[in-house]
Predict the 3D structure of the following.
Amino acid sequence: PLLVRRSDRGYHEGLFSSADIDRALREGLLRYTEDLDVTHYTREGGRRTLNPPGRRKADPQEVWAHHAGGCSVRLSWPQRVSEALWRACHLLDEHHGCASGCNAYLTPPGH
């Protein structure tokens, strides 16, 4: 793996944010399991996925309530709902000559 540390904390500002996640949720663009997972991790119990059954649209109030309660929110292929991430993946595709993708994780502080 490659880790690049930046002295400018705002270097990735505007790439993807919790506001972008909220927008995608409110626009009904994210489905549980397919696009988004709500997860909780403890040392004793490991990782648990708390998605409701099925692949229904993710409810913004449910997702943010879980996050406020200590759960992480994981998005698969967030470039499908973010122009900035789509552009970044496209540049990687062009540079490396193969398909790329990403995941996004929003974990509450202290977890």
Observations:
- Residues 83-96 form the longest helix (14 residues).
- The radius of gyration is 15 Å.
